[in-house]
Design a protein that fits this description.
The structure is a homodimer. With about 70 residues, the first copy, chain A, is mainly α. Chain A has five helices and two strands. The interface of A and B includes residues 7, 46 and 47 of A. The structure holds a DNA duplex (30 and 30 nucleotides).
DNA sequence: CACTGAAGTATAGAAAACTTGACATGACGT
DNA sequence: ACGTCATGTCAAGTTTTCTATACTTCAGTG
């Protein structure tokens, strides 16, 4: 079973803010599969740092604008 | 074999800027093993986003201050 | 209604990240 | 010379991330 990640994200909001960009389009821009975007958007696991940087770059925002790390605790 | 990552970091410099903190101490603070810190410091692979956030938090700096993502290119 | 595009689920398997433990090196103090 | 501490290496194993296929649901359109 996957463990749900602590990191949250604003990918869905950013996609819509960028001309209704679809998950498939974002996946292509980032260079991953559609399933990966779905899983991350749903917080099923947190992406690699590389992927996080690539996503932020697609939306032209800083990394902290896409991903949030809560104070702590499992 | 791990593939060398595109992401670079300033962990070593930050460790020394924080009272000569050792790799073992940083590992303990972050909650990973010493080997993991060594590998990341050497750029053998890039950490998970969660770990990246935790490291930045230890040094009390923004994530982009610890990790840099170059323009592109594989 | 049939057709299409976007989102989601599921499963198996590859690849990358991370752990554990053992051993090697160089710098430092006694 | 000896012990210790910080760094680094190696190899085998586990967990998490990511891919690839295939199938489902729902909103919109002709």
């Amino acid at each position: 079973m996957g463990k749900p990640t602590k990191v949250t994200n604003s990918i869905r909001a950013l996609r819509f803010a960028h001309g209704e960009m679809t998950q498939a389009e974002l996946a292509k821009h980032v260079g991953v599969t559609r399933q990966t975007i779905i899983a991350i958007e749903q917080g099923r696991y947190s992406p690699s740092l590389e992927m996080a940087f690539q996503i932020a770059r697609v939306f032209k925002v800083p990394l902290d604008d896409v991903f949030q790390y809560p104070d702590a605790e499992d």
